[in-house]
Amino acid sequence: MAIAATVSLPLTSPSRAARLSSVPALRSSFLSHSSSNTSVSIRASIAPRNPRFRISMTLQAPEKSLGASSFLDRRESGVLHFVKYHGLGNDFILVDNRDSSEPRITPEQAVKLCDRNFGIGADGVIFAMPGTNGTDYTMRIFNSDGSEPEMCGNGVRCFARFIAELENLQGRQRFTVHTGAGLIVPEIQDDGKVTVDMGEPILKASDVPTRLSPNKGQSVVKSGLVVDGVTWDVTCVSMGNPHCVTFGNKENQSLQVDELNLAEIGPKFEHHEMFPARTNTEFVQVFSSSHLKMRVWERGAGATLACGTGACAVVVAAVLEGHAGRNCTVDLPGGPLEIEWREEDNHIYMTGPAEVVFYGSVPL
């Protein structure tokens, strides 16, 4: 029996909050066959003052199995079909935009969709678009605040799994993806995890960008940054998007990251005058030369459960500061990522999961 979950909510200001629970088993149920002809429809009015705001779930036995491609092929005027994915809890609304180089929704609509009380709930909206300059595909993202980042590491893993479902591809697959950070190459492994060639880290201070003065060649490595009167030791890295990585401050050289008030300190780093494009900030605890733990405040999204580019930047900073080797497990609140900074090509390789949460539709 296939299950299709539909979230129906207008992108105008609703009168009351509603939340759609995740459906972990939805993907397997949605793709399964059933000999039953039973059809059950459940509709619950969440906001009586706004009859358009409802959640409906339909269970039906299709003639043949459905996948993301057939679900998203439905073309209805004023309706956006999507699939929600997550990479270690960093969650995204994935939109099939392969027929156009312009996003199907505006940044303002993305903000409303990402709202966890009045919308679907996500850290961002990702669009699968036609390739650029010979690549297979183009990936664009709107953050939950409507800003557009150059790239997202967890997002590109979700993007790869989304493309595989759209194209009905099985087994090991490799794509070339154009992003605002340049060429990214994800590869789906036999176990379903995704390894992404994230390219070379950018360390030149002016290219990160940061206004902090270089103190190691053209790079900023373990340099002092004053935030609220406290001097933090920071290393600045770009993975196509800016990162400020810290392992401690002058008062506390060994962070216990779970004790940090991220909501208080994170925005002060993000909007610091030393970062003209704002910055993502990673706070790191060192367990060993191959095991790190981080919490992240993401530019445009705030505290998230995982950040792939951030984990890559953390390993680069750990190597440069002498905390770790080039092959590390990085623990994030949503789970671990495997990060390798290879000496032979200077590229960083990230490996981690990406999972379907549910399929849905929303009126625009």
Radius of gyration: 21 Å
Order of helices and strands: EHEEHEEHEEHEEEEEEEHEEEHEEEE
Under CATH at level 1, the class of the largest domain stands as Alpha Beta
CATH architecture of the largest domain: Roll
CATH superfamily of the largest domain: Diaminopimelate Epimerase, Chain A, domain 1
Shape: globular
Would you give the CATH topology of the largest domain?
A: Diaminopimelate Epimerase, Chain A, domain 1
Number of extended strands:
21
Structural class: alpha+beta
- In angstroms, what separates the terminal alpha carbons? 29 Å
Low-confidence parts lasting 5 or more residues at pLDDT below 50?
1-65
Content of β-strand: 35-45%
Helix content: 10-25%
What does the model show?
The structure is a single chain. This protein has 364 residues and is an alpha+beta fold. A hairpin with a 2-residue loop joins strand 12 and strand 13. Belongs to the diaminopimelate epimerase family. One of its GO terms (cellular component) is chloroplast. It holds the Pfam family DAP_epimerase. One of its GO terms (molecular function) is diaminopimelate epimerase activity.
